[in-house]
Specification:
The structure is a single chain. By secondary structure, the protein is α/β, with parallel strands linked by helices. The protein folds into two domains: 212 residues, Rossmann fold, CATH 3.40.50.2000; 155 residues, Rossmann fold (3-Layer(aba) Sandwich), CATH 3.40.50.2000. The strands form two sheets. The chain has a seven-stranded parallel β-sheet. The chain starts with a helix and ends with a helix.
């Protein structure tokens, strides 16, 4: 297999060039010292990527290297990652099966020679593949954003290498429970459950709530996120279509493929937004954040929206019902039936449009609850994880 791959590389000059570029990048970092090497998949816009940047912010004095292992859709967050850490983008090299073998072996050798205090991975399948080959003296951590039943997810990729992980950070108590149950069902010793720690995501909460322009003539609803299957964005599209004559307007923000984006007349698609001022203005001018996911951890977008007084209207999945209170600071839908979810979402939105007093009460309570998500706790947790005083 080694000789076959070598021959294939020689027969493809473009791969040969890419291979040497990857080697050059790996060689360029060998003369430096790092406290932590991170393995992240992407630097495009996304909630997980924002959390990864927040981790870098939490430990500014640590010497950091990020190895990106997958091909990103765009480079909109690359500059922000680069400002906080040295970076090594191997996504393209690792995506080519004829180069992958060589690059992975060079990567393992390089990491071991650098001998950082910690390696830390999230959502990178490669990270779990190379863990057994990493020096035993290097502490190995990972982060899981949300638990999934899909076998193509980190909690399942990682099962064969659980014994190599010294700490596992999860953002929701529900996910910790589900991961513990997965360990038990796969006969993983209980001692490894003790390595799981809870670290909630965090946000910068505005010092005061910016009051909204409440009107029973109009209700503004936002969806922010990608259109992956678990988000079930089609449910929201059906709700918007159902309410097209009720002066309830929907704005979609995020990466939404054209085949999904069949929006009704009361809907607007803004695409991906990286400008934080633009996002803050969008939150300020919106009344409701809507999410119809079949699974979640506890989304960053809920915290951010609540800090600007947006009322979460969500399916009660993941840690959402554990951290929000229905009819007090959020509206939660306990149903797995899509037709029922559409009806309940529609009913709640019509109710909010008509009842301004209810809307004001929920909005204020959402803002007050958002103070529990302050970024200071997040920063302290990661500084403690990496033993930074």
């Amino acid at each position: 297999m080694f000789l076959i791959n070598l021959i294939k590389i020689f027969l493809r000059p473009q791969y040969w060039l890419i291979f040497f570029k990857g080697i050059t990048k790996l060689q360029s970092i060998k003369s430096r010292q790092y406290d932590i090497i991170f393995f992240f998949p992407f630097y495009h816009i996304g909630g997980a990527e924002r959390v990864h940047i927040d981790i870098l912010h939490a430990i500014p004095e640590a010497r950091k290297l990020i190895i990106f292992t997958n091909i990103s859709r765009n480079n909109k967050l690359l500059e922000e990652f680069s400002s906080k850490s040295a970076i090594l983008d191997l996504g393209f090299c690792l995506s080519k099966k004829y180069l992958n073998f060589f690059v992975v072996n060079l990567l393992v050798s390089t990491v071991n020679k650098l001998n950082p205090i910690y390696v830390f991975g999230c959502n990178s399948k490669l990270y779990y593949q190379i863990l057994p080959a990493i020096n035993p003296s290097i502490l190995k951590f990972d982060l899981i954003h949300a638990f999934s039943d899909n076998i193509e997810a980190a909690e399942h990729w990682s099962l064969p290498v659980v014994k190599y992980l010294d700490k596992r950070a999860l953002i929701s108590h529900k996910a910790i429970q589900e991961l513990s149950e997965l360990y038990i069902s796969n006969s993983i010793p209980e001692e490894y459950i003790k390595n799981i720690v809870f670290i909630s995501n965090g946000i910068n909460v505005p010092s005061t709530l910016i009051e909204k322009k409440y009107s029973n003539e109009r209700l503004d609803v936002i969806y922010i996120g990608r259109a992956s299957p678990e988000k079930r964005i089609k449910i929201i599209e059906k709700v918007s279509s159902k309410l097209s004559n009720h002066d309830i307007f929907f704005t979609y923000v995020g990466f939404i493929p054209d085949e999904v984006n069949t929006l009704s007349s009361n809907s607007n698609y803004l695409g991906e937004i990286n400008d934080q001022d633009a996002l803050r203005e969008l939150y300020t001018n919106s009344d409701v954040l809507i999410l119809s996911s079949c699974r979640e951890g506890f989304p960053m977008v809920i915290m951010e929206a609540m800090s600007y007084g947006c009322i979460p209207l969500c399916t009660a999945v993941g840690d959402i019902p554990n951290r929000l209170e229905n009819n007090k600071n959020a509206l939660l839908i306990n149903s797995n039936n899509e037709l029922e979810i559409i009806e309940l979402f529609s009913h709640k939105l019509i109710q909010l449009k008509k009842d301004i007093l209810l809307r004001k009460e929920l909005s204020l309570n959402a803002y007050e609850q958002s103070k529990a998500f302050d970024i200071k706790t997040f920063n302290e947790s990661y500084r403690d994880l990496f033993k930074i005083a």
